[in-house]
Please model this.
Amino acid sequence: MKAVISSIVVAIILALIFSLPVLAQESGTITITMRGANDISISLDETAWPLGNVTLNTDYYTSPAIEWCTLAVEGNCNVDTFIVGEDAEWIDNSSYKWTLSNSGGNGEHIYGLWFRISGDTTRGPLGDGYVPITKTQSEFWPYPNCSGSSLAPEDYKQFGLKLLTPTYFWGGRQMQTHITISAVMA
Amino acid sequence: MVGRIKLAGLIAALLVIFLPSFTLAQDVNFSVSPAEVHIDNLPLGEAEEFELTIHNKNEIAHNFTIATFRPPEEERRKGRAEFPDDSWISFSFQEIEVAAKSEASVTVAVAIPREQKWAGADWEIWLGVAAESSDLLAVRLYVRLLVSTSAAIAARSNAGLVAGIVVGIVLLGCGGYYYFRRKARTE
Model:
């Protein structure tokens, strides 16, 4: 009888030996840390560009060309910024679109959008400072291999846009598109 | 004359009104806090919550949308992998109206399935807040969410299994010993 009781006690002790570390891990604390506890914010001083009538296969520039809009950092943390575009849609029926080119070029019902930041003179595929805006989010500022760094609070960047109309499109339709500029804590 | 009219008609047909905005430009000025959130040691199978605050600095109310975004590797923090599944993150509101000169909070919940393969991971995903606008240019602000999961599930399942086996063996041994001893006494 003594042997049986001893065996059960040993079994309980063994079970506790294996269970205690697990129980200890269960009581581990979850840590939630908030950084940049105040805020992230950027502003744009221009958001609309009413072009009026446009013709085929033509470049249109904002006025002034490269200091049309000012992006300002208003939060309290450094930020990296990005830009993304989308297809232009006929406001009466979104099934008619101008597809946004992924290279800045144009084609039939395909249009190009470009941006240029003031001070950038050699950036972009043509080396003239203009960079294509595509449907994939890409760097606005800073960008790979540039000499600049993330934007600090109260920093700003001025930029302008260029639109290249399609080589062919259906006329008499009001088209609408959107460009989104985004920011994330650097 | 007829040719000129036809040419003019053709040109007119090729013209289009490209109006990115039909209303007066209404700048949307807002901020989001915090800018970065770390959740460390998140147990698998459990949910954790935190709040994002959207501050509308404009004189009029605006609608804001909230959505996840998986950044490419070069934009993520060092050592952070892509967050595996956006559906593990939920928002109390995916669209919210914020009154002029005021702020509103959105509760974000993160819940990782209780599966061994997600233990001990370090992930990053961005939470994008954008103001609805019909203008050409719009702003989206991202909050970096960095999630590290606990490795406890592996230890717990293995240790529990081993402990169960040990206890089972000991108890069976004891029972067998008691049974045969009693049988021997009877004989």
Summary: Residues 42-185 of chain A form a domain with the Immunoglobulin-like fold (CATH 2.60.40).
